[in-house]
Design brief:
The longest helix has 17 residues. The chain contains 11 helices and 11 strands. The N terminus is likely disordered. It starts with 21 loop residues before the first strand and ends in a 31-residue tail after the last strand. It has a 7-stranded mixed sheet with strand order 3-2-1-4-9-6-10. With 315 residues, the protein is of the alpha/beta class. α1 runs parallel beside α2, α4 runs parallel beside α11 and α7 packs parallel to α11. It is 33% helix and 16% strand.
């Protein structure tokens, strides 16, 4: 297993599967003091309840400017207080990559958060994050949202060690479906792409052959996810990400990183390569999240797709 240059001197793990070249990552909206305050509170809870949290770097990606400069001393103070290995990374130069200068997004009140900034965030977490030097050299990356609260229970285990032991490529806590208003043509796009690539025998999801454009879109709830970085950098996953970029629909229809992550894994991962962490932690994002099942009862004609059973954490 690869070792990062910051792994030297780490507390030795109890198992040979210790993933020292792993990191936790967040994307901070530094222009919003409320979300920055929530992130710092949640990181303090993470450090206080999860013993393994201090083994790994915690990277806070952010845009620059005065607000970004003001975040750095707050992260340093939190790190000194909690022992978290916090570091900030200004991604102003890469965050807007592939994003148009303007986007004609819906103006209705309930969709205001789906503006250009949100769409840039979707593109960043779907594929842009794997283009960063900070991430490319890692074996595993855990993503948390700034308003996510990850609280370990007594006996909660190191997620990176579990991923390595299970040879998993993706870890999650919940499965849902995205709103059809922001997923137009997405299942149809995935099904069309699937017809041109070799199929995974042990697929956890089968694309409907010719689904209508209005199919409900399954998604992993990506505000918590653990990713095998080399797996997402492999040529076939990278080619799929380029195909998504070529449609322009992350910015046009606001395709989200959550259903796009589902499509990538549905195309190229088997059920045994997934690992559900539901129940391992007390994880909250707009309420408790713990839904491991991969099967769906989609009632729209032509949209049904079989799902496999939920992966089980090793004892």
């Amino acid at each position: 297993m690869r070792r990062s240059k910051w792994a030297v001197g780490l507390l030795l793990c109890a198992t040979p599967a210790c993933a020292t070249d792993a990191a936790v990552a967040l994307l901070a909206d530094v222009r919003n003091p409320t979300t920055a305050d929530a992130m710092l509170r949640n990181l303090a809870t993470f450090a206080r309840t999860c013993d393994w949290a201090r083994r790994y770097d915690v990277i806070v990606f952010h845009e620059g400017g005065a607000a970004g400069d003001a975040l750095r001393p707050r992260l340093e103070a939190l790190g000194n207080r909690t022992g978290l290995r916090l570091r900030a990374r200004d991604i102003s130069d890469v965050f807007a990559t592939h994003a148009p200068a303007t986007t004609d997004w819906p103006r209705r009140r309930r969709l205001r958060t789906f503006g250009i900034g949100y769409r840039r965030m979707c593109r960043f977490w779907f594929s842009g994050v794997f283009e960063l030097a900070d991430v490319r050299r890692l074996s595993y990356l855990m993503r948390l949202d700034t308003d996510s609260e990850l609280r370990c229970r007594p006996g909660s285990r190191d997620p990176f060690e579990l991923m390595a032991r299970q040879r998993a490529v993706y870890g999650y806590v919940a499965v849902k479906t995205d709103h059809p208003m922001v997923a137009r043509n997405l299942t149809a796009f995935g099904a069309a792409y699937a017809r041109g690539v070799p199929q995974i025998e042990d697929a956890f999801y089968r694309f409907p052959p010719h689904p209508p454009t209005s199919c409900p879109t399954p998604m992993f709830y990506t505000n918590f996810e653990v990713m095998d970085v080399p797996w997402f950098q492999q040529p076939r996953a990278a080619a799929f990400a380029r195909a998504v970029d070529a449609t322009g629909q992350i910015f046009g229809n606001r395709w989200g990183d959550a259903p796009l992550r589902w499509l990538t894994l549905a195309l190229f991962a088997s059920r045994t390569q997934l690992l559900c962490f539901g129940g391992e932690y007390d994880y909250r994002h707009r309420g408790p999240q713990d839904h491991c099942g991969l099967s769906f009862n989609l009632t729209v004609p032509g949209c049904q797709a079989g799902g496999g059973g939920a992966p089980v954490l090793p004892p």
